[in-house]
Amino acid sequence: MIARLRALASLVMLAGFFVFALVLLVLGVGVGIWAMGHSHAAIKLVLLAVLGFGGAIVVGAKRALFYKAPPPDGVAIDPHRAPELWAEVRRLAEAAGTRAPDEIRVVPEVNAAVSEDSQLLGLIGGRRYLYIGMPLLVSLTVSQFRAVIGHELGHYSNAHTRLGAVAFRGRLAIGGALDHLGGSLMGLPFRAYGRIYLLVDNAASRAQEREADLIAVRVAGTHAAASALAELPVIDAAWSFYFDRYVGPASQAGFLPRDIFRGFHDMSQARREELAELRKQPPPEQKSVWDTHPPIGERVARVRALPPVSLMEDTRLAGALIPALDQLGEQLQQSVVNVGDRRVTGDWSEIAQASNTARLQDTCDDLFRQAARVLTVRDVSLTDLLYAIEVGRGPQLAEGFFPGTPPHEAYAQLPQVLEPLLTLAALRSGQVRWVHSWSQRAELVGPNGQPVDFAALAKLAVEPQTVGQARNHLAQLGIAVEQARVVEAVATAKNADVIGGIGNTKVGKTDCDMLILDNGLILIAGGGDSNQGNQRMVTALRSAPVAELAKRYTFVPYEEIAAVTITKKVPLKATLSMRNGEQLELKEGWTSDLLHKQSRDVLLEILEGIGPR
C-alpha cells in the first residue's frame, strides 16, 4: 500500500514539477508580451526569466528521462561459486514472496542493497541485483545475514525498487533545474518545490523501511532481525576505526594490506570486548524529517514490539556461505582499490613498522620546524637541539613551544618535545621497532623484545648539566642522535583533510576560491562566476589529491601565521600576519559560496585560535 502511494505521490509531483515550470514560463511569456506592447523597461528581466524557466524545463527533463545507470559495482558471484549462498537467497526470496535477484554482487561497503533495471520511469520491472557488503559477511551470523537480506528482498516484494526509480528520476529532474538556475532568484520557486518533494518522498521511504523490517522478522525471526539491525552501526563504527587506525596510515606510508577484509575480521575479533561495550551503549542518533531511514534504535524497538517469531538460530559466520572467502576478498580489493605505487603486502608487522614510523616522522617534523622558528634558523636536527640546550637556550625553546605558560612550567614540559625526537633517533638507528597489535596501539620494543621508554632520557637531555650524560647513554644503546632530522622543512598538506571552503573570496586584490584544511588554506586564484564557487571547489577536489592541490596552488600553513586580526565576522574580513613579514588580507563577499554551511564558522574558530599579535 505504501509503495503504491509513494508511486502515485512521486508521479504526481514529478509531473507537477514540469507543470509548475511551464506555468512560470507561460507567465513570463505573457508578461513579456505585455511589456513589449507597452515598451516597458522590464522586458529584459522577463526575457531572462523565460530563458531561465525554459532552460530549467529542458535540463530537468533531459536528466530525468535520459539518465543511464552506471555499471554495477563489486564482484559478481555466480551460483557455481557459492551454491549455499544462492540457495539461501532464493529461499529467502520465496519466503518474502518475490522473485530472486538475477545477480549477486559483493561490494566493499558496510551495507546491503537491491536495485532493478526497471523501464518506463521504473514502472516496468527488469533485471534484479543484490549487493552484499563484504564487511557484513565477516561480521554477521548467518541468521543475522538472513534478516538483512530478507529486509532487502522485502523491497522487491513491495515493489520498492521499481518505485524508487520514479522517485530517483524526480530528484534528477529537480536537481537538474536547480543546477541550471544556480543560486539566482529565479531558482527560489524550484528550491521550494524541491524541498517539498524531498519531504514527501523521504517520508514514504521511511515507511518502506518499516515495511521491509516486517519481512526481515518473518524470514529470520525476531531476535535475528533485531540483533542484525543493532549490529549495523557497530560494524560501521568498527570499519571506520579500522581504516583510521590501520589502513589509512598504511596507505599514507606507501603500503596496502593484501586482504583488507581479513584484517578487518581479525581486528574485530581482537576487540570483541570494546565492540560489546559499543553494543551496550550505542552512539546517540539524530532524527530528522529529511532522513530516508528511521533511526536504528527506533527500528529495533519496533521489531521487538511485534508478535515474536522464533526460528532456529544459525550462529555460523555469514562468510561460511561462500567458499574461499579470502580469495574473494582479495579479488574484490583488486577490483576497487587503486594501488598506484603502493607496496601490497600481507605482513602487518611490516605495515606497522612503516606506518608508525612515518607518523612519528611527521610529528617530529612539526617539532623541528617549530624549533627552527624559535632559534631563527632554516632547519634543525636533534643534534642542534641538544647543543642549544647545552649552551643555555633551553628556556628559549620552552617559551617557543609553550607560549603563554609560566617559564618554570614551560621548561618542565620540554621533555615532552624531546621524547619523540629521541624515539625517532632510536628507530632510524635500528635499535627499536614497532610491534603490530590488533587489540591496542602498536608497541615500541627494543632488541630484546621488551617495551622501551625514552621519558627518563628526555628529562636528562633538557638540562645543560646532564645533556652530556644523555648523549653517552644514547651512544651506549647504539642510538645515533644525528639520525633524527627533519624530512619536510616546509609544511605541506600531506595527510590533510578538507574541513570547509569559501568561494569567491578576495585575498589582497586577487579573486580566489579558498579551501579550508585542518592544517592550512589552499588559495585557488582566478575565481569566476559568483554562483559557481561551490562547484569550482568541488571540481578542484575531484581533480587531484589535497596534497597535490596544495602544490599546484598557494598553500598557507597555519603554523606560518604569526598573528590574525579579525575586523569583521560576517562576511569575514581578516588580516593574516605571516612569520616572514608578509600580510594577507582575506575578504569574504556577501555572495561568496560556502562548501558547507559551517565553513565560515570553522575558519573563524581556527583564526581566533591563532589570535592577535
Radius of gyration: 30 Å
Unreliable sequence segments: none
Structural class: alpha+beta
* Continuous helix count: 22
Helix fraction, binned, reads: 40-55%
> Judging from the principal axes of the Cα atoms, what is the shape?
globular
Output mean pLDDT. 86
Largest sheet: 7 strands, antiparallel
CA-CA gap between termini:
66 Å
Give a description of the structure.
The chain has 22 helices and 15 strands. It is α+β, with helices and mostly antiparallel strands and 613 residues long. Among the domains are: 2-69 and 171-203, no CATH class; 348-483; 498-610, Roll (PH-domain like). Strand 14 (573-578) and strand 15 (583-588) form a beta hairpin. Helix 6 (160-181) packs antiparallel against helix 7 (188-220). It starts with a helix and ends with a helix. The relative contact order is 0.07. The model has no long low-confidence stretch (mean pLDDT 86).
Secondary-structure map with pairings?
Blueprint (H helix, E strand, L loop, with lengths): L1 H36 L5 H23 L9 E3 L5 H14 L6 E5 L4 E5 L11 E6 H4 L4 H16 L2 H22 L6 H33 L1 H31 L2 E3 L2 H11 L1 H9 L15 H10 L19 H12 L6 E3 L2 H28 L6 H9 L3 H8 L5 H6 L1 H15 L4 E3 L7 E3 L9 H7 L5 H10 L21 E10 L2 E8 L2 E6 L7 H11 L2 H7 L1 E4 L3 E8 L4 E6 L4 E6 L10 H12 L3
